[in-house]
Amino acid sequence: MSKVKTLGQFIIEKQSDFPYAKGELSRLLRDIGIASKIINREVSKAGLADILGEAGETNVQGEQVKKLDLFSNEQMIAALTVGGECCAMASEENEDIIPIDNAQSATARYVVAFDPLDGSSNIDANVSVGTIFSIYRRTSLSGPGNTADFLQRGTDQVAAGYVIYGSSTMLVYTTGKGVNGFTLDPSIGEFCLSHPNMKIPNGGKIYSINEGNYVHFPDGVKKFIKWCQEEDKPSKRPFSSRYIGSAVADIHRNLLYGGIFIYPTTSTSPKGKLRLLYECNPLAFIVEQAGGKATDGFGRILEIELNSLHQRSPLFIGSTEMVERAEEFMSKYSSVELKN
Questions:
Q1: pLDDT band with cut points at 50, 70 and 90 for residue 22
Q2: What CATH number is attached to the domain comprising 65?
């Protein structure tokens, strides 16, 4: 039997990759792992506990908040506060940052941004959901963190990852030196290395987009979808349409099998809908580290200037060949739209 390597063991082995961190980053990833185990426990028994459905509140985005959203948010905040390795947090569910004002955090080197439960609209239907996180080195000198600590480009991330709660629970993360996946073994309560050095195929046969919004899409996206649906033996088209509605789940599948996930601008959401800090940047960092590509349809996601905590962006992410093909359509037909 091959030796099982846990997330904790793996992190300790890789700690030498970050001599400046002195173990803080490793402990921070450990804290996130602990929070995700607690969230997974509640997600897995959601049908047995009174935590399904709406909480009767709306978040800063004006969206209905699910009970599990609130629980997941509370668990992430609690784990990161007690851990003492970050000086501030930013959550998709909170309008402002959550500074940590205690003796430990005064000298903490990191800030953490997270979407506590991505795809939560699928909870009641028992569809895969996930947690997304992103870690930056603080820019402030000491004390509790501030908003400026979070307004950094995606290229400044030191680590990012997601946890997908599905038929099995997986934690996938990168520290800028490749991507590794860990599957939760419920018998021992540990994440175990199951997908070392993950690489996304350069091409793919899957496109993921909510085609119900087709009428609102830019012409470039409409033309790309039609191209995917055309019959063409050399390129093995038509491609398969697969859309789960949880970004983590769609991107995780494409990371394994190849494909593209698109959440474009629409006539009703001209700036896009996904959040740059909580979703686009961490997912882009992971996919790039796995050999893929992530853009807003025209330029690299990780190079976009971040001006506000809840800034939105369109997202084209996945296998390099498919993303570049989509960009060609965007470039060609956006000029037509501008002329008109």
A1: low
A2: 3.30.540.10
